[in-house]
From TrEMBL:
Annotated protein name in UniProt: Threonine synthase
Lineage: Archaea, Methanobacteriati, Methanobacteriota, Thermococci, Thermococcales
Gene3D superfamilies the record matches: 3.40.50.1100
Gene: thrC-1
Top-level enzyme category: lyase
Any Pfam family hit: PALP
Length: 353
C-alpha cells in the first residue's frame, strides 16, 4: 500500500510506460533559500533532489527506466556510474526482482553510494579507469550480452527526470527565470528542459526558463567549449572533488548544448574550492546538506552574479541533485575535531569561554 504519497506518478499521463516499479520517488521539497537570498540579493530556491528514496534525482529516471525494462521482458539491467546512478539502479532492480550490474570507476566513488549499491544487492564491478571508460563497456555489453542499459542515453530515464520541471512549476506557481544545475553526463539538463518545453507546448505555461549548466573546472568540456566559442572536445583525464560529475566525455552533450542554446542559457565552470565553499554555505546558512556536485550550481550562480553575467533582479532555482550523506569523507577530511575534553562541567565551561 503506497497510501496517498505524492510522487512523480502524479504525472503518469506524461510518462511513456505502463508498468510501475516505484519507491515513492519525486514529490521532493522546493525550499526558499531566504538567508542566502539576503546575502546574494536574488530570489533563490532549491529543488532538493536529495530527498528522493536513494538520495538523488536518479530515482526519477530509474522508476521509469526499470518499469520499461520489465515491460520489455528484460531480467538483467546495467549501468556505468560515478555512484548515484548505481545506487538508484540497484534499489529499483531489487524492488523489481531483477539482476543489476553496476560498473564504477575503481576507487573514485563516494562511500555512501558504494554502500548503497552493495546493500541493495547489485553486482558491483569496479573498473580500472574513469566513468567514460566504464560507459564504453556498458554500451557494448548492452548491444551484445542481452542486458538492458539504464544510463541516461536511455530515453526513458530522461522521461522520468523531466518531472523535475513539472514539479518546479507546480510548486512555484510560475516558471522561474533561471534553472541552475550541475552537469556531468549531461542528461539531466536536457531532461528538465524537455519538461519545461512540454509544459509550454501544451499551453500550460507561456514562459520558459534559461538553463544554466555548471561543471567542475577539471571536468568541464561543455563549459570550456561554450566560453571559448569552440567545438566540443572531450577532457582526457577529468578530475574534481565532486566525483559525481567527474566526467570528461558526456554522452548527452549535444542535447545539453541544444537545451542551453535554445533556452538562452549558458555553461560555466567552478573550482573545487568554490564548490566546497558553496557546500558549506548551503549547510550552514540554510540547513541544506548536499553532496559536492550539488553545490556546484550555487558556486556557479555566485560567480556569474559577481561577473555580471547573471542579473540580480531575476529568480533562480538551484537543483540540488544529491544528498550530503552520500559523501561524508569529503566533509570530515576537511575539518579536524578538537581534542576530547574531560567529562566535567569545568572542562565544558572552558569550551564555552
Ligand atoms: N549531480 C549528481 C549528484 C549526480 O550524481 C550527477 C550524475 C549529476 C549531478 C549530473 O547529472 O549526468 O545528468 O549531467 N551522476 C551520474 C552517476 C553520472 O553515475 O551517478 P547528468
Amino acid at each position: 500500500f503506497d497510501g496517498k504519497n505524492v510522487t512523480l506518478w502524479k504525472y503518469e499521463s506524461w510518462l511513456p510506460v505502463r508498468k510501475r516499479v516505484s519507491l515513492n520517488e519525486g514529490g521532493t521539497p522546493l525550499y526558499r533559500l531566504s538567508n542566502l537570498e539576503r546575502e546574494l540579493g536574488v530570489e533563490l530556491y532549491a529543488k532538493n533532489e536529495g530527498a528522493n528514496p536513494t538520495g538523488s534525482f536518479k530515482d526519477r529516471g530509474m522508476t521509469v527506466g526499470v518499469s520499461k525494462a520489465l515491460e520489455l521482458g528484460m531480467d538483467k539491467v546495467i549501468c556505468a556510474s560515478t555512484g548515484n546512478t548505481s545506487a538508484s539502479l540497484a534499489a529499483y532492480a531489487a524492488k523489481a526482482g531483477i539482476k543489476a550490474y553496476v560498473l564504477v570507476p575503481s576507487g573514485k566513488i563516494a562511500l555512501g553510494k558504494l554502500a548503497q549499491a552493495i546493500i541493495y544487492g547489485a553486482r558491483v564491478v569496479p573498473v580500472k579507469g574513469n566513468f567514460d571508460d566504464a560507459l564504453r563497456v556498458v554500451v557494448e555489453a548492452s548491444a551484445k550480452l542481452g542486458v538492458y542499459m539504464l544510463n541516461s542515453i536511455n530515453p526513458f530515464r530522461l522521461e522520468g527526470q523531466k518531472t523535475i520541471a513539472l514539479e518546479i512549476y507546480d510548486q512555484l506557481g510560475f516558471v522561474p527565470d533561471n534553472v541552475v544545475l550541475p552537469v556531468g553526463n549531461a542528461g539531466n539538463i536536457s531532461a528538465i528542459w524537455k519538461g519545461f518545453k512540454e509544459l509550454y507546448e501544451k499551453g500550460i505555461t507561456d514562459e520558459l526558463p534559461r538553463m544554466i549548466g555548471i561543471q567542475a573546472e577539471g571536468a568541464a568540456p561543455l563549459a570550456r567549449a561554450w566560453k571559448a566559442k569552440k567545438p566540443f572536445e572531450p577532457v582526457e583525464n577529468p578530475e574534481t572533488v565532486a566525483t559525481a560529475i567527474r566526467i570528461g566525455n558526456p554522452a548527452n552533450w549535444p542535447k545539453a548544448w541544444r537545451a542551453v542554446e535554445e533556452s538562452g542559457g549558458l555553461f560555466e565552470s567552478v573550482s573545487d574550492g568554490e564548490i566546497l565553499r558553496a557546500q558549506e554555505l548551503l549547510a550552514s546558512r540554510e540547513g541544506l546538506f548536499v553532496e559536492p556536485a550539488s553545490a556546484a550550481p550555487l558556486a556557479g550562480l555566485m560567480k556569474l552574479l559577481e561577473s555580471g553575467e547573471l542579473d540580480r533582479g531575476e529568480s533562480y532555482v538551484l537543483v540540488t541533485t544529491g544528498h550530503g550523506l552520500k559523501d561524508p569523507n569529503v566533509v570530515v577530511n576537511r575539518f579536524t575535531l578538537p581534542k576530547p575534553i574531560e567529562p566535567t562541567l569545568e572542562a565544558f565551561r572552558e569550551v564555552m569561554k
